[in-house]
Amino acid sequence: MNAVLQYQAQRRPIPAGFLEALGAHFGDRFSTAHSVRDHHGRDESPYPPALPDGVVYAATTEEVAWVARHCNEHKVPLVAFGAGSSLEGHVLAVEGGISLDLTGMNRVVAVNAEDLTVTVQAGVTRKQLNAEIRDTGLFFPLDPGADATLGGMAATRASGTNAVRYGTMRENVMSLKVVTADGRIIQTAGRARKSSAGYDLTRLFVGSEGTLGIITEVTVRLYPQPEAVSAAVCNFPDLHSAVQSVIEIIQMGVPVARVEFMDLAAVKATNAYSKLSLHESPLLLFEFHGSPGGVREQAETVQEITSANGGMAFEWAEHPEDRSRLWAARHDAYFAGLHLRPGSRSSTTDVCVPISRLADCVLETAADLDRASFPYTILGHVGDGNFHVLMLLDPDNPLEWQESERINQSLVTRALQMQGTCTGEHGIGLHKMEFMLAEHGRDALDLMHAVKQAFDPNNILNPGKMIPPA
Amino acid sequence: MNAVLQYQAQRRPIPAGFLEALGAHFGDRFSTAHSVRDHHGRDESPYPPALPDGVVYAATTEEVAWVARHCNEHKVPLVAFGAGSSLEGHVLAVEGGISLDLTGMNRVVAVNAEDLTVTVQAGVTRKQLNAEIRDTGLFFPLDPGADATLGGMAATRASGTNAVRYGTMRENVMSLKVVTADGRIIQTAGRARKSSAGYDLTRLFVGSEGTLGIITEVTVRLYPQPEAVSAAVCNFPDLHSAVQSVIEIIQMGVPVARVEFMDLAAVKATNAYSKLSLHESPLLLFEFHGSPGGVREQAETVQEITSANGGMAFEWAEHPEDRSRLWAARHDAYFAGLHLRPGSRSSTTDVCVPISRLADCVLETAADLDRASFPYTILGHVGDGNFHVLMLLDPDNPLEWQESERINQSLVTRALQMQGTCTGEHGIGLHKMEFMLAEHGRDALDLMHAVKQAFDPNNILNPGKMIPPA
């Protein structure tokens, strides 16, 4: 593991008898085996693992509350664990303590098709959810690259390729069941589409990364499966013309469902990894949802814009299976990138800027990266102004990691100067804590500290993450 | 004024020299004149006025911070004041103190047309905003009945007739400038369309009703003016068939921009007050936004649904001026209702329920109301599951007020049993505090208390509102 990305944290002592009490309560759903702890001490981030002292496999909200009370009483850290697909070190037990595995809580609790809502336990994954509701004619559009759990997606305010049309978890979570640090169980809201009744606890927990409470149930909005769907690839001579096209499409208000950017390296990596034969130049992947007439109209408008910007003719993915293959490849772009450089790890950036600044931000960043000593790819949910750089690093070469950190720091500085954010959808975790002060300022950060202190006075919930020490 | 709707609150003593210091600092922008205090001690709610001890007309965020520091140091209540159009008693100075009039902060700070955002000072009203940005081809869709200020709309999480398509202030506020209780100035977010960087302070202040901070600037999303707009009226034989039509339209996913319900009494009141000649039966007002083809398609789908439910043929408002007249009449429906019973005051309900329960909720409520001794009208943003009953009461008859409170209580109980909320868009203020415990439960309410305590330990910000005493 690289020696550059480290965390400074002290493991807290575990009081005598603490682990034994968990074992007595949970039986074989509690483990201190090294292999189990190792699995729960790592994610997709490039950090060295940080193992919890024990792992509980929870089956009910009441069990989660029991664990929270037990941990809170003894001031032992408690880290919620779902798919383990974080890129930012969210689930590492940097202060030790208990990892709470919620993947066994994977039941769809209530489908309210008439209201376009569904309530699921936190461990349900996005693919499982869509499989289980397929017959209703509804779907849940949010799709981070990984098959993440709904609980994890809510906790990191995740989004994905459909957010440009359907919004992020911020807009799509209607209500949460949450266990507080001291083991109380609350429901943050009802199921009405809007409410002005009190502080927005739902959105306070969405994006709180397990630091304010443990999410055990998630109620989200669903959408009617569109009558017509079409998808197309559009190649461009360069990065600038692709990004400029997106800016114009958004400014025109075209309700495009997906518009994803891949740079040349990402296209090559995807062709190799996913056995596609995309034309090898920077490109945009589009998907249009609507009535047959509406989809046709959107596609025509978009083609006029891309063509005026030097884009090539659309290559249509006519059949559902072609579309699935295309989007599966897009979702695998992270792994495709890693394969560009066998044995590498990726340090992945996630800035998001106002769309008017997107071209500048991407171009200046690409210029920086072209001078770097390692390969990279650029992928982007560019309709939202959000893009990722995968920097493909030799895990054993500290110089590369230092270089990548410098590039990331200057990228974030650039994004913040453009009124953007250091993270559009991956969250803060460990890796972006250093940017919180620059992004929010001392006074706003102090308010976040005050919320944390009010909700979790013993600092047991995912300690050492998100909010940097004052 | 009625003797039934009262507030229990103690006026706090004003320390010697406190008002004089404000006078010295603000000159003629500070007033203790009775007429000025009276204007700032009342709103559109039926409560008797509660006068502040003095009124400051703020011109800058820094001035707001100065007032906050001064009030906080002396533990004097501070109540933000905008258009004064609250229906729930939000701006009444029930514990005395200072009313902070923000209507002079009415400047559009930055139009970022390319990013579809605008930043305004808190005192800008929705109509002023749309007038000032008209030339950009963009518009801000949210339209509470009154010409409210953007600051007030953010503070109450307001919405209006367009929310079914464009969302509420929850979805449309991108960032806020806020003065904290102790006079610090924070910006809650940048201008990126999405972010996963830390707790969602923006949405914590949206809907906080002036109890957590004073909003001085608001950045909201804008939308391209639709290429085509059409509006139509559809009459129904009864309430049930109208509401059932709406449920089916929403479940089909038709992106209707507006769908408003008026019961027979509301139609009659509107014809009389706004000099219209609407056919007098329960009706729906529709508006469709999109391309010419898209609008036609939406209208056809909706007509099929309404017609299958017994709706009459659409009456189209073809010309822009006809549409403006129709929607102006809808926005005046509150005043039209009051004119049904000259000299009356309205107690206005605001429940919102999941759409599958909307017909039941409206019908059971209408049955209750038909037994009441006073006239009423029902109006609704029914696409969101939200409707208002205007109960037109004799201000001097305590029996009517008691009766209206009983009806409102059973309406809210019904809505909560349906997983709805006591307020879809008007906020809690004074009048709905009694429902907060039933809606949220003790533990969630305790978390709200904890936030309030953390942000405003001296309880100077709009005290006596929203969160009932523990």
Automatic annotation (TrEMBL), chains A, B:
It comes from the Bacteria. SUPFAM superfamilies: FAD-binding/transporter-associated domain-like (SSF56176), FAD-linked oxidases, C-terminal domain (SSF55103). InterPro entries: FAD-bd_oxidored_4_C, FAD-bd_PCMH, FAD-bd_PCMH-like_sf, FAD-bd_PCMH_sub2, FAD-linked_Oxase-like_C, Oxid_FAD_bind_N, Vanillyl_alc_oxidase_C-sub2. Residues 48-225 form the FAD-binding PCMH-type domain. GO terms for biological process: lactate catabolic process. Its cofactor is FAD. Its EC number is 1.1.2.4. Pfam families: FAD-oxidase_C (PF02913), FAD_binding_4 (PF01565). GO terms for molecular function: D-lactate dehydrogenase (cytochrome) activity; D-lactate dehydrogenase (NAD+) activity; FAD binding. Keywords: FAD, Flavoprotein, Oxidoreductase, Transit peptide. Belongs to the FAD-binding oxidoreductase/transferase type 4 family. This is D-lactate dehydrogenase (cytochrome). It comes from Eoetvoesiella caeni.
